Amino acid sequence: MPEADVGGAARDDGGRFVVDEHDLPAGPLDLGHELRCRPPVDLDIGFGKGRSLLEWSTKGFGGTLLGVEIRRSFVEHAAARLAKAGVCDVRIVRGDFRALVPRLGPAGAVRRCFLHFPDPWWKKRHQKRQVVSAPVVASIVGLLAQGGEVFVQTDVPERAEEFERILSSGGLDTARCAEGPAAPNPFGTRSNREVRCEEAGLPVYRVIGRKP
Ligand SMILES: C[S@@+](CC[C@H](N)C(=O)[O-])C[C@H]1O[C@@H](n2cnc3c(N)ncnc32)[C@H](O)[C@@H]1O
């Protein structure tokens, strides 16, 4: 596959690939061509310091994980950790997931989308900052293959209820995972915040939505 011209700021160092949304071409973005993902593709939205990217790469899922994170300092931190660990099957876009995901394609190319501890706010006035909203879920559902999954976890029980409602309204079959410190993440791709919860013995609330 020919490599896309994603601008001078993209780094492609032995298969590791980090790009800023401003350096991507305008318009639709093909996961294979512009973002150099090999199928099946998984997404990790708002990966923070990137522990979940590293853990994903050790699980042998095959394919590529595309991480999207808005904070530059987190992107740099995660990219350095991936490079140090020699990880080659993870791509990173620094940018706003809400603008990026509706541009991704082709439809049906995504196997799984991870949303580890998004939206830690639950007050009404914070709703406009929310990452998990009905329009965003609709874009993700369009990208999912049949049987593809959205996995959301949180330490705020009210948010778990809200996520379940939004995923279900988006046409996904939803289920809650077992809860509590003794119930591990079923995919083993633990995020930074998840490990902090584990260490503090705090419950984590998990929802899986599956595309019928
Ligand atoms: C509560 S933190 C969780 C970080 C990580 N997933 C974890 O579980 O440790 C939420 C993350 O989402 C990122 N984020 C928030 N809004 C975003 C957006 N619109 N696009 C991309 N990332 C976003 C934040 O910068 C932050 O790193």
Helix content: 25-40%
> What is the count of helical runs?
6
CATH architecture: 3-Layer(aba) Sandwich
Computed structural class: alpha/beta
The CA-CA distance between the termini, in Å, is 31 Å
Ions and ligands: S-adenosylmethionine
Quote the beta fraction: 25-35%
SSE string, helices as H and strands as E? EEEEHEHEHEEHEHEHE
**What's the story with the biggest beta sheet?**
9 strands, mixed
Q: How many domains would you count in the coordinates?
A: 1
Number of strands: 11
Mean pLDDT: 88
Computed CA radius of gyration, to the nearest angstrom? 16 Å
List keywords for this structure.
single chain, 212 residues, alpha/beta, Rossmann fold, nine-stranded mixed β-sheet, two-stranded parallel ribbon, 6 helices, 27% helix, 26% strand
Protein architecture, described:
The chain has six helices and eleven strands. The longest helix has 14 residues, at 72-85. It has one domain (11-121, 129-210): Rossmann fold. The chain has helices spanning 51-57, 72-85, 97-100, 134-143, 157-169, 192-200; strands at 11-13, 16-20, 29-30, 41-45, 64-69, 90-94, 104-105, 110-116, 144-154, 173-176, 205-210. The protein is α/β, with parallel strands linked by helices and 212 residues long. The relative contact order is 0.15. The strands form two sheets. The protein has a nine-stranded mixed β-sheet, with helices on both faces. Strands 3-7 form a two-stranded parallel ribbon. The chain starts with 10 loop residues before the first strand and ends with a strand. 27% of the residues lie in helices and 26% in strands. S-adenosylmethionine binds at residues 46-48, 68-71, 74, 96-98, 116-118, 120, 131, 191-194.
